[in-house]
Structure formats: C-alpha cells, structure tokens
Amino acid sequence: MGVDHPSGPGKGPETVDKPTTQDNGDKPPAENNGSSSETPRADSLRAAGWKLEGYGETGTDQRTGESSTTGSTGDKQRGPGDPPAEADPKADKEPKAGKTGSATDDPKTATAETSGTDGRDHPQGQPPGRETDDRAEPADRAASSAGQYRMPADNPGSPGQPSRLDDLARAREAQQQRAAQNAEGTGGGSGGQPGEARDGGPAAPQEESRDDKAQPAGQAETGGTGRDTHAEGHGEREVTGGEGVRQDGRPPEAPPADTRAASGGAPGESDRPASQPSGEQAGGPAPEAGRPQDREHPPLPHQDNTAAAADSGTPPGTEQTPPGADGQGADKHGTDGQGAQKQGADEQGDRRPRPEPSAETGDRTTGPAPTPPDSVHSAPEPSGRDAQPAQETGTNPQAPDGPADNGRTPPPEAPQPTEAPKPAEADESGTEQPGEAANGTPDHGTTGDAPPAPQEGEPTQPGTQTGEAARSGAAPDSGTDERGNTDDTPPAPEEADQSAGAPEPPGEHDADHGKKGPEGNSEQDPDETNRIKPEVPGNPVISNVHTDSRGQVHVEPRYGREPTGESGTDLAPNEPERTDPEDLPSDQALDPAHTETESEAASRALDQREDIEQTNLDKRSRYERLRRANASRASDFKSVTKADGSIVDAFLRKTPPTGHAETATAPVVKPSQANAGTGDAMLTVGLGAIVAVEGTRQAGRAVKRGLNRMKEKMNADH
Amino acid sequence: MPITDLQTATLHAQLAGHGDEHQRMLGQLTSEEDQDGYSKLLATGFFEAVDQRFVKDGKIAEDSAVVDFVANLRSKTSEVADRLNPSIAERLILHALGRGEIDDIDGNTRLSGQILILGGLIADMSLSEPELDAFMTRIRGMAEDW
Fold this sequence. Notes:
The complex is a heterodimer of chains A (718) and B (146).
Chain A: H1 4-24, H2 27-34, H3 38-47, H4 49-78, H5 87-104, H6 107-118, H7 128-145, H8 150-154, H9 161-189, H10 193-199, H11 203-214, H12 217-224, H13 229-246, H14 254-263, H15 267-278, H16 285-290, H17 292-296, H18 301-313, H19 315-326, H20 334-351, H21 355-366, H22 373-378, H23 380-407, H24 410-413, H25 415-419, H26 423-439, H27 441-449, H28 452-455, H29 460-474, H30 480-488, H31 493-501, H32 516-532, E1 543-547, E2 553-557, H33 563-577, H34 587-590, H35 592-629, H36 637-652, H37 678-717
Antiparallel strand pairs in A: 1-2
Helix pairs in contact in A: 1-2, 1-4, 1-6, 1-7, 1-9, 1-10, 1-14, 1-18, 1-19, 2-4, 2-5, 2-19, 3-4, 3-15, 3-18, 3-19, 4-5, 4-7, 4-9, 4-14, 4-15, 4-18, 4-19, 4-20, 4-23, 4-26, 4-29, 5-11, 5-19, 5-27, 5-29, 6-7, 6-10, 6-11, 6-19, 6-27, 7-9, 7-10, 7-12, 7-13, ...
Chain B: H1 5-16, H2 19-26, H3 32-54, E1 55-56, E2 59-60, H4 63-74, H5 78-83, H6 86-96, H7 107-125, H8 129-145
Antiparallel strand pairs in B: 1-2
Helix pairs in contact in B: 1-2, 1-3, 1-8, 3-7, 3-8, 4-6, 6-7
C-alpha cells in the first residue's frame, strides 16, 4: 500500500494541483500554499510541523503546484493562520484569484479544477472517469508548477516518513508531469474543462457544481464528491482518466495519490493536522501531529487529498489550492479541510468500512453547520471525504464562501439527498465541502460540486457550497460568515479532526484502509460525535440498565464505549447503584398469588377465630342452657329421685348370665343303671333266704350225721 | 359450687345399677347444697350424654333420632313409659342440643326426665366401670366449672 499511497498522493496532487496550479496559475499555488488557507493550515503546519514538512516532502511537488491554489484559498480564509509567511503572501494573491475565480464562478474552470481534484469535474459533462483524469492532470500540472512548495517537502516532520514522502514526491512529480501532459491532451478532450480548470478554477466550480448537481448520481459521485468520490472518483479516474493518474502505474492508487498530492503529501497527517490547524483549533493539530499513524498515512493517496486540505491550511495547502483549482479540496478551502477530507476520503475509502464514524463526524461537522442550509449541504457532501481536516479548515474558508454557496441554492438540495442516503458520506461531504471550498475557492464550486456528485448527483451542490464557502474563505467577502457558521460547526479543532477522521472511514476509499490517521480519527470520532452531537443516531443509547435475578441493577454501556475499560468502569460505578436484595421486597411479597394465599390465610384465621368464638358461644350457651335446665329447683327432690332411681335401677341392674357354659367339661363315667328296681330286691332277699335255709340244713344234716356217727361209735365203743 | 364425692358417688351408684346403694346414698343428700350439687351434676351428665349420643363430628342429629331414642326408652318398661312424657323428653333433649326452650317445664318434671333419659343413654352406652368413672370425672369438672 505504501506504494499505492505514494501513487495516491501523486494523484491527489494531480487533482489538487491541476486546479490550483492551472486556475490560480503558477502564482496562486505557491501563494496559496502558504497563503490563504494556510492560516489554519499554518497552524496545522505549526502544530503538525512534521506533517507539513512531511507533506512538503511527499506532497511538496504536488503541492507546490497544486496546493498553491488551494492553499491560497485556504490561506485567505485562514488569513490568521499565517504562520507560513511564504504561503501567506502567495495565498493572499492566489486566494484572491481563487476567490475571484470562485466569485466568477466560472463553472468550466471550476469544473476543470474540480475535475482535477477528485473528479468533481466529472460530474459536469464528462464522465467521472474523464473528469477525474482531467482533474488529475491539472492537479499534476499544478503540482509540477507548484514545485515551489517543495519547501514543505523539506518540512517532512516525521523522520521516518520522508522516505515515503520522497518516493511519493517523485511519483507525484512523475504523475503530475503525466497529468499535466494528460491535462493538456485530455484537458482539451475533456472539453476544455481541464484547461479551464487550469485557467481559472473559479469559474469551473460553479458550473461543475451545477453540472454535478445536474449529473446523475453516478457522475455526481465521481465528480461531485471528489472527496467522497475519492474512492469512486479514483475508481473512475482509473477507468476513464486513469491515463493521467494511472501513469503512476496504479491507476486506482493514483487517484488517491492525486488527492493526496492535492492535500499535500501526507494526506492523513496533513489532513488531520490541516484539519486541526485549519480547524484553527490549535488543539486539533497538535494531537494529530502527535499521531505517528497519521504521519505514516500521508503517503496514502487519499491522504493526499486530505493532505491537500491540510496543506491548504499550511504550505501544502497552497499546493492543495492548485488541486483545488482542479476543483477539489485544495482549491476549496476545504483544501485544508478538503485536502484533509479528500485524504480522509481516501482514507475513508479505506475507512469507509467505518461509515459510522464518518457519519458521526459528518454529523458533527454538519451539526454545527446546520444553520446555513448551504453550509449544511456542503458540509455533508465535502466532509464526506475530505473528512475532518477539510471540515475544519474548510469550515473556516467555507464560512466566507458560504454565501456564495447560498447563492447556489441548488447545491444545498443536492447535499441533502446525498446526506440522506449516506449519512456518513453526508458527514464526509460536509467535511469535504469546507475543504473543497477552502481549496479552490473558484474551483470550490467545481470541487464542491464534484464532491457531492460522487456521493450523489447533488453532492456537487454541497460541494459547490463548500467550494463557495471555500471561495468565500478565499474571498472573505461573501459567505465567509455564513460558511463560517457552517464551518464554525467544525470549528472545534478536535472535533473537526475527529470528524475528519470520521469522514475518512466513511471515505469510500477502501484502498486507504491502511491509513492510520483515519482509523485513529474514526475511533475518536464516535466518541466525539457522541459528545459533540448527541443527536447522532450512532449512540442513541448510552447504556443498558437491567436487574439481575439477585435484584442488583447493572448499567452497562451499550454502544460507543470500549467494552473493556468502560465496562469495568461502568461496572464499578454501577456497583454503588446496585441495591441490596434485602432492601427489595421479597418475591413472595411481590407475588400476587402469595398475597392471595396470605389473604386466604387471614380469612382462614378469621374463620378459625369465628369458630372458636362460636364454640365459646356454644359453650356459654350450653352452660346457660344447663343453668336454665337446672334453674328451677325440684321441690320433691327426694321422691322424684327415689322413684325415678328405682325405675332406673330396674333397667340398669345387671342380670346374671343365663344358659350353659359352652366350655368343654371333663369326662364323666355314668353307671349303667342308676336306679335299682324293687322287684330285683325281693328276688335277691328270696334268693338269699333260700340260700341260707339250704345252707343251714345242710349244716344240720352234717351235724346230725356226725352226731350219729359218734353215737354210733360210742355206741360202737360202747 | 363444688361437687362433693357423695354427690358423685350417689350418681355413680345409680348409673352403675346399684339400686340399693344408690338409694342408700341418695338418702344421705339431705342438704339443699347437696341436692343442688347433685341436681347440677345430674344435669351436666344429661347434657354430656346427649352430646355423645346425638352430636357426631360436630353435626347434630336430626329430630327423628331424638324421637326414636325417646320411643325406645319408653318401651323398656311400663314404669318408664308411665313416668316419661315423650314430648317433654324430646324437648329436653333438643334443648340440650341447643334447640328449643324448656322454660315452661317445671323442676320436678325436668329432674325426673333428666334421670330417666340419662339412665337410658348410659344403659345404651353399656359403659364399663372405667369408662363410667371417666365420664363421671368429666362431668364433675364441668359441673364444678359451671
């Protein structure tokens, strides 16, 4: 990419240089460089002295020729930022010329200039590609002529960058030469726009702007937003006018290079610094310069554009003026702004993936601008690419141009649509516009137109507006105030820078993604946008508040804050917010069902109590009944109790059990005959008597016999 | 008014079917206090026996149950049937259950009816000696609290 960037810057310078150099003539470029736009740019140079130098190196060649125009315009506007004495005188001269040109509003010239810048010229009649080519050519020429500004080349603040810058410068020179050739050749082919642009960017701007407006979105995009279109414009350039630009070898890169050249070498840095200085917000430039990334980025082509803007603020700005003459940022005071914007756009192209920041930035820039519709329109359109720097510087220059733009009512409309479709672009455009305006006050119209065109057909108008603003800036006469208003919106240097960074990301130049500057800016942008413009939809919701199951309340950043640091910080602060669950009512208490149960329980308790009371009443009543029952004492107590007692004893007396025992008894032996019969005794006695008689007889007989025998014996003995 | 042991023993002998002993002990209640105490204890026994018979699970039996009980009681002996007016018997029972009033019933009739109804409820309960003793203890306490 580094190579690309160089080529890019080469392109940048081409575009810017052409318009400036051509338009302003060789005079303005140098003058422009230091001069008009420089005041802020000078600041940027101071603050970003590195950048300026670095830009000078890289973009010097380009710037010298180109930046003169832009720078002139920017210087004029920035008159105060004179620091670059050299640039100032030139700027004074050129800016006037540029302004005059713008004032004259030679559309053709402006277109030529614008075309030179970013293809803003394209929007007019020619296809964006041609326009871009044309632009590139004039820018190159301007750059070549602007060789004077090589002084800034010496400046290359960043030590490491010089090498690239040198390379870039070389490439740019070659490109410029080629572009010059092409411009000459193609310029005629392009319809003399280039020539016009060279001649007097001023006239071109109007026409260009108009053309851009008139042109379809595609053209408008290409030519219109030269800045915004950087990507587009470059692409177109590559395609159509790739000739001049592509000479670098990298057609696509070349366009950014052109823009860079216009911006003045280190686009990123220049842009930012430019924006800062141009932003006239001293704070702005310093931080930007401090950013090494930005320094590195300068080589990027887009940055060149932006650098042109930045340069426009500073010496490079003068160079840018020539590119502005091309109609782009440089010419447009946006030179600073524009150049920056362009660069930013280039960067943005890279950053475009980050459209949001750009949008934010754009919003920011535009935000303040809103008062003047033109400025607003312009703001969105130009800012889109030139992004922040352009915005800053451009804003100032634009302020004066503003009126002119206002005079160009149509442009505002154009920017609106552009903005609407592409917020980021619009933002960018807003930044760009100022830048453009600053760069080529005359060209501004063209450039301004061109930038819007790239975004959308209308953007050219904003561009014109911006260009006008730039013009006015160059010619402080007219709308300086108005644009100043618009520009004032960007005035916050930091914001502008941030915004520039933002526009860069939206910058349609994807190739420039590598650029650090835009990224850093883009990062800053969201916050800044948030801060600056709460309106920005980007961060509508700052934090999410939710309660945990524990009942603790957590506040977490939803968007725009870095998760780590912020989250931690947020958590920490949130902790105090946390409420102890104890304090909170219990879930049961909150639960309606639970409450119902309680009510039920209460009812139950009541029921129980009632029951108890009833029982008590019953008891009481019972006792009462007893009392009543026994109230009347019985007069005949004894008789009653004795009579009724005997009756009760009768049925209460316990009778003994009747029946047999059913339990088993022991075995009993019974005689066979229990009763002896009378007949049986008689028989027994008779039988006994018979037995006794018989026995006696027998005994008597025996006795007798014995006696007989004795007698006989005795007798016998005898 | 405290319930004396004599009063309690007299009623206990009657409810135990010891007619002779009851008569003998009843003859000992000569003082009005003893007679009032005995009447009070007898009425308490009457209410308690009615609740145990006609109130179950907090529900009071229907009048028919009372009617049936009175009829059965009067059928035991001719003497009971002669001495116990069924309407008065039912009113006494319902009054014990919280229904109706017995203000128009004289004391002798109330006392005669309470003795007969209480004898019949205790005869139907077929209480054993311990159960009878518990019952007597309970009604004595109630009578004393009254």
